[in-house]
Amino acid sequence: MKNTLKVMLFAMMAIGMMACGGKEVTQEDLKTAEASLFNADQTVNEAEAPKVADTYCRFVKQHPDDSAAAQWLYRAMEINVFLKDADKSIKLGDQLVKQYPQSEWAPMSLFLLGSYVYDSQLNDTAKAHVAFQKLIDSYPESELVDDAQMSIKYLGLTPEEIMERIMSQTEVEDTVSTATEE
Questions:
Q1: Is the distance from CB of 78 to CB of 112 less than 8 angstroms?
Q2: How far apart are the C-alpha atoms of 68 and 24, rounded to whole Å?
Q3: Are 37 and 45 in contact (CB under 8 A)?
Q4: Main-chain dihedrals φ then ψ at residue 175, nearest 5 degrees
Q5: What SS3 state is found at 38?
Q6: Are the C-beta atoms of 124 and 93 separated by less than 8 Å?
Q7: Which of 3-17, 78-92, 125-139 is least confident?
Q8: CA triplet 126, 135, 109: central angle to 5 degrees?
Q9: How far apart are CA 107 and CA 137, in angstroms?
Q10: Residue-wise pLDDT tens digits, 85-117
Q11: pLDDT, tens digit (0-9, with 9 covering 90-100), for 15-68
Q12: What's the pLDDT at 168?
């Protein structure tokens, strides 16, 4: 009976380790993963990038209360945005905002979701608008609020259309300024 209990306990621990993504992720593992993310010419090593993001996610799962957990989750999200994996990017961004709403990374996550994932990758301006508005409403003191407001203003426009609007607005401001001076 005692041996059966030991075997069951060992099996449960092994299953728990597999569910958390394998072995314990250490700070040294994070450094090694970080070093493998870039090639010698400083370009992203696309073959290693998914493994690096997975290492970051495993660390967060194993150490959710670590002071740098939100940062590692954001970095995993950035990698997935770079790899154009919108589903993983959204999942990680949503997790970050939900699990670490007070971190400096939460508004950055919302901005990244709005601009690169929803707007650029998925062409979903409605969801991009929601992400930007959530940033504005939830983090009114964030330095990204002005950028989010500007992004909402220009959602769905091509770069040429944005430039045209900016130029016409500048012309109107110049005309008003000249008229006020006279």
A1: yes
A2: 16
A3: yes
A4: -65, -45
A5: strand
A6: no
A7: 3-17
A8: 90
A9: 10
A10: 999 999 999 999 999 999 999 999 999 999 999
A11: 444 444 568 999 999 999 999 999 999 999 999 999 999 999 999 999 999 999
A12: 87
Task: Report the candidate in 104, 100, 130 with the shortest Cα–Cα distance to residue 117.
Answer: 130
Q: Which two tokens stand for residue 21?
A: 């993504």
Q: How far apart are CA 32 and CA 91, in angstroms?
A: 25
119 near 151, Cβ under 8 Å? yes
State the architecture of 27-158 in CATH terms. Answer: Alpha Horseshoe (1.25)
Q: CA 76 to CA 66: how far, in whole Å?
A: 16
Tell me the CA end-to-end span of the chain in Å, nearest whole number: 98
**Closest CA relative to residue 108, chosen from 80, 83, 153, 145:** 145
**pTM of the predicted protein model:** 0.79
* Token pair recorded at residue 56: 């970051």
* pLDDT-derived band at 1, boundaries 50, 70, 90: low
Q: What's the rounded mean pLDDT across residues 125-130? A: 97
DSSP state of 25: P
